């Protein structure tokens, strides 16, 4: 089998610790096992739309790598699109989407502008790789051709060799609740803290893993909330840790909670379920596609902090209920792909695209 050369176009540092960037690095690491090679080309992470100024350099780097296929990350689609449209001699283009057109973290004016630019690039793409059924449904509703979409969800395995955190995560309480997510508004950390604060003091210890500096203003509000007496000594922050350490937290916790309002896939939900953790969150985004309410987790109405408190309390204090739901979560996660499965699906799609392009170019 001839090696498939893939150039993956993204924004900023490919080593950034978010679900989308981790997806790319994990499939890139496994590419040789599937007869492929992935090289990255990044536009600088400047203020929008300034990264587009580096487009000429981007095109030169793409040509230098001589890829068989160009895979464009959704976070850079709108910025790269005009350059890719004008360039000659490019290979077939596939887009890999972890967010809808326009993104999910921007003000409305920026989102509208970016959405228009994103769609222009997607119209040029010969294949669109989608991270979840929920996101695919969103794109169907927006008029994208379903025949161009292929759902390739992330893997469930957080790390091959987990590194356990030191000490007892429960800290002499009834349960350890884990939340993995960067400190940004859409992750709903303040909602989670308010709901958690209403639990009895001996019910649970909450552990927060994630980058605390993504949205400084929001992080300041989180820190101020953590300093209040009702949360002090009941919540432990760990900052950014390695994937192996995240896997260790999954292994040692009892419950996973993330009150995210917009999660196109929610890799951490799948990873937690694979470790045997019942998951708690809003009935929004992709969570309902991963966990059935009352079976593998508890998905409560978005914004209902009282319902979130009740869900956390039940799982923290009812050992039998938690154990039953944990077993169901693990069984459901066994149906999710591993990262090897994800890589195989992705490179199969990309190889099929290149072969189709070659056939169509023949006289």
UniProtKB/TrEMBL annotation:
Keywords: Glycosyltransferase, Transferase. The keyword Glycosyltransferase applies. It comes from the Bacteria. Pfam families: Glyco_trans_1_4, Glyco_trans_4_4. The keyword Transferase applies. Residues 6-155 form the Glycosyltransferase subfamily 4-like N-terminal domain. This is Glycosyltransferase involved in cell wall biosynthesis.
């Amino acid at each position: 089998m001839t090696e498939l050369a893939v150039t993956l176009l993204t924004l900023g540092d490919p080593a950034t610790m978010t679900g989308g960037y981790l997806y790319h690095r994990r499939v890139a690491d496994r590419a040789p096992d599937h007869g492929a090679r992935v090289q990255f080309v990044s536009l600088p992470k400047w203020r929008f739309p300034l990264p587009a100024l580096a487009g000429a350099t981007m095109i030169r780097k793409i040509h230098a790598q001589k890829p068989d296929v160009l895979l464009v990350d959704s976070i850079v689609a709108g910025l790269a699109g005009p350059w890719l449209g004008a360039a000659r001699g490019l290979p077939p283009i596939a887009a890999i989407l972890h967010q809808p057109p326009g993104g999910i973290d921007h003000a409305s004016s920026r989102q509208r502008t970016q959405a228009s630019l994103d769609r222009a690039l997607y119209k040029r793409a010969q294949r669109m790789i989608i991270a979840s059924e929920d996101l695919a449904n969103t794109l169907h509703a927006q008029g994208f051709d379903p025949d161009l979409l292929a759902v390739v969800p992330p893997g469930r395995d957080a790390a091959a060799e987990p590194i356990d955190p030191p000490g007892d995560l429960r800290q002499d309480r009834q349960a350890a609740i884990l939340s993995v997510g960067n400190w940004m508004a859409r992750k709903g950390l303040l909602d989670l803290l308010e709901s958690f604060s209403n639990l009895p003091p001996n019910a649970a210890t909450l552990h927060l893993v994630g980058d605390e500096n993504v949205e400084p203003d929001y992080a300041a509000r989180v820190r101020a909330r953590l300093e209040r007496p009702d949360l002090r000594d009941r919540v432990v922050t760990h900052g950014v840790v390695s994937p192996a350490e995240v896997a260790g937290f999954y292994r040692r916790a009892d419950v996973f909670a993330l009150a995210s309002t917009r999660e196109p896939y929610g890799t951490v939900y799948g990873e937690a379920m694979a470790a045997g953790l019942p998951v708690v969150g809003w009935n929004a985004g992709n969570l309902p596609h991963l966990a059935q309410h009352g079976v593998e987790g508890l998905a409560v109405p978005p914004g209902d902090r009282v319902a979130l408190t009740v869900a956390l309390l039940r799982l923290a204090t009812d050992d039998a209920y938690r154990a039953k739901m944990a077993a169901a979560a693990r069984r459901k996660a066994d149906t999710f792909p591993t990262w090897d499965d994800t890589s195989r699906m992705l490179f199969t799609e990309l190889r099929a695209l290149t072969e189709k392009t070659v056939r169509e170019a023949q006289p």
